[in-house]
Amino acid sequence: MNKTLAEARAYAQGLLAAVSGHGLDGVQPFVIPPASAIAAVAEILGRDGRVLVGAQNAHWEDAGAWTGEVSVPQVADAGARIIEIGHSERREHFGETDDTVRRKVAAVLHHGLIPLLCIGEPASVKNAGGSAAFILNQARRALDGLDDDQLARVLIAYEPIWAIGVNGRPATAGELQEPFAALWGRYGGRVSALLYGGSVSVDNAAQLLEIEHVGGLFVGRTAWQLEGYLSLLGIAAERGTYRGTPA
């Protein structure tokens, strides 16, 4: 819930200027503005796939008596290509369940867009040694029943709850190896990419991208300011570690 229309336009214009004519081999940038700014940002960045525009949420129904919600066709009409689904804040504060997440994934795929499925465990689960089982269960409940072609269009973002937000702490490489190995064991080569999100910064991005099976980053606070996002894009481009094909 950040940025007015004017702020979002300025960010998009700066991003477009920075990426135009510059090689980002192996990297697919994307931005996910608030619903109020999707159309404005998409108009500036275009729909050619150089920078994908997303939506932070969308309902599983195409239309109807769902006051305050937006549908997948509506955000697609505004220019969104990626739909973020199941973020921990949506689950905690707005009652999202594994069932509603599953319905949203199916709706996004039905309309030809890219589901960005967010999964992650709380600190209590991590401390009990149950991280891998927890996130695999979240992913299974959201993705079971999809065929290979559908799975190939899905992005999975692992965001441990203990590592995100203002009170989150950066995860170490050692803490991420087991969860990503587990995700790769079930979904490696089947989904578009496995991303990591959680206290990503300019200081730790390179190390995170070197972790086996991490195919990209899903960044929050560091990317709120354009300078931070551009720095992260530069780090990713130097390594060419993005191995998915969401476009």
Automatic annotation (TrEMBL):
Enzyme class: isomerase
Gene Ontology MF: a single term: triose-phosphate isomerase activity
Family matches, as CDD domains: TIM
Location of this chain's protein in the cell: Cytoplasm
Pfam assignment, any one: TIM
Cytoplasm listed as a keyword: yes
Superkingdom, taxonomy of origin: Bacteria
Sorted UniProt keywords: Cytoplasm, Gluconeogenesis, Glycolysis, Isomerase
Annotated catalysed reactions: D-glyceraldehyde 3-phosphate = dihydroxyacetone phosphate
EC number: 5.3.1.1
Pathway(s) the chain acts in: Carbohydrate degradation; glycolysis; D-glyceraldehyde 3-phosphate from glycerone phosphate: step 1/1; Carbohydrate biosynthesis; gluconeogenesis
Family annotation (InterPro entries): Aldolase_TIM, TIM_sf, Triosephosphate_isomerase, Triosephosphate_isomerase_AS
Family statement: Belongs to the triosephosphate isomerase family.
Subunit structure: Homodimer.
Protein name: Triosephosphate isomerase
